[in-house]
Amino acid sequence: MQNTATASRPRRGSGNWMALFSIVFIIGLYLLSTHSPGTILSNPKLQIVKMMFISVIIEALPFILIGVIVSALLEVFVSEQTIKRLIPRNPLLGIVAASFIGIIFPICECGMVPAIRRLIHKGVPLYAATTFLVVGPILNPIVFWSTFTAFRNKPEIVWSRMGLAFAAAIVIGLIVHRFVKTDQLKSAASHDHGHGLGHDHAHHDHNHLHDDHNRHHGHAHHHPKPNRAMGKLVDVMSHSIGEFFSMGKYLMIGALLVGLLQAFVTRGTLEALGHGPAGSGAIMMGLGFLLSLCSTSDAFVAQSFTTTFAPGALVAFMVLGPMLNLKGLLMMSAVFKTRFVLLYGALVAVIVYAGTWALGQFIL
Amino acid sequence: MTTNRLAPLLHHAVRLTILFGLTAYIAYLSLTGQILLFIAPQLVKYVDLAAICMALFMIGQLYLLVRSFREPVPSCACGAADGHSHGDDHGHSHEPTGGPVKNGLVYGLFLLPVLLGLLMPNEAFAGSLAHNKGMNLGVFTGGGMPADLARLDGGEDPDLKTLFRSDTYNRDYAKLGMLLYKQDKIVMSDEWFIEKLQAMNTFVDNFQGKTLQITGFVYREDGLPANQLIIGRMAMTHCIADISPYGIIAEADNAASFANDTWVTITGTLSKTTSHEMPVIKLMIQSTEPASAPSIPYIYPDWDFAKKLK
């Protein structure tokens, strides 16, 4: 991508084009739907889009804010040395450790993505971060409980979901460890609002060498008047706000797309596409990707498909959705290079598909 | 240099406006109770906290705005003071990158939910969306206990136990089924709507001839015979992106006279039929009366249902 090579065109992020597209789409919808302004606003499809859009935003907001604040706290208070001490030297151990962090840190992908960027900047290896990203939204007590509630009669579905997520995380972590050696974070250039307004040093790739320097001197002298504690508070605040705007943009686009899909794609259309075990797994994975549901609520949606889809396909839906979905992918593209996002998507899709096939053969 | 000074000010001001807009809109929804049209009740407290958090961000943003007024050339460490260069080309100005059009679009995206929220009335989804979702007859799986059930004698009668033979997995539905069985009239109220439906569909044969009353919207699925319709409710887990319809098939000779999406209260006796090759209960309509849609028409799965049964 052009923006990674030259920093001179900093705002060529795909997100901006997506924003443009979304707004044009909305305006198009607005103009095409009917004739007089009053009736446009009461158009039932537009009404569905609007309600879905706002609903997804409101639902995700608390979790995004948690992620954004954790990320800002990490930036201001946790040093690289601390992180380095905490990460196990052995990669396999690191991967296993990362997949268990989700259990004590139950947070969905909305909150995870902002924190991940900061963690990688602070020296967490990419493979450990990726493992966490894969497994965190699924392997945690809240998701276990909601899945168990929805599939009270079929505990094997609950265990399959948890087990497959864990296995997929280990495999993906190992593959990333083995094959991806270079820096996959998006360069500073494409973070529009980060710098300037947020004092966001960490967005800058070439910053690695200067991190210590920053920490010791940087914050000390940008706020000459207030005392140190006040300075830290302002830092946390401005980092949080900067991050909120850079991540929130992707949430807005994702929510809009989810709203459009819900309004215009019917469940019947999807079901008609997927018959036979091979097809139904793929269809449910596609649905999991598109719907972008929160991992704690998707179990009930999966339950509503029990009459039409095999258990394997339901597990595919509940494992793939939280790892890889439209909203999350947009947010990831704010953090990682496009190539890595594509690699991640392909790995998740292939492994979940193979995993549910194996489950279908032997367990479900 | 004027643009150099104005741009960051403008950014801070726009961000302040956006934070204010979002916070005020959520506060409005929460105070008027309309928030329940968007999310499930158990999430409201988190969203309230989020609104408080954004209000704090507003204060922070106001501080940043005031600071950039007072110090037009910001004394920020990410700049020349450190000596390390980042973004050689944008030097270290706090000038926002990108053209005003793109910035406008991105910020516009944040205001879109507020604008749409103000321009369009909030609406609950009942029947109209069921068509996109496909009705769920609650065949498979499986606040305190609803009052009508709590009044019943929990003592287990051996005859009932043989009727509701259970294994480890459907024990909870068997228990609920026994309670429902003891009722003269089973009323499908908001509480435990899904759980009751699933208990009855787990033990379809035991409920033949029982009287049941249900209030919901009328809905028809493709392939439904002319003398049948579905009385349904929308269940929400977290937000309206995950709502799914649940319902009971009802049958009457004059079924065609019920228009889709109208709300009715139907009383009848239970019979059975099959849906997607699974046995499900069917309601033979005896009496109907028009009902009005509740202002919050959603029902919610009860996560602690099994615990409350004991």
From TrEMBL, chain B:
Alphabetic keyword roster: Membrane, Transmembrane, Transmembrane helix
Database matches in Pfam families: DUF1980 (PF09323), DUF1980_C (PF21537)
The keyword Iron-sulfur appears for this protein: no
Domain of life: Bacteria
Transmembrane helix is among the record's keywords: yes
Domain DUF1980: 14-136, 164-301
Annotated TM spans: 12-31, 43-64, 105-125
Record protein name field: TIGR03943 family protein
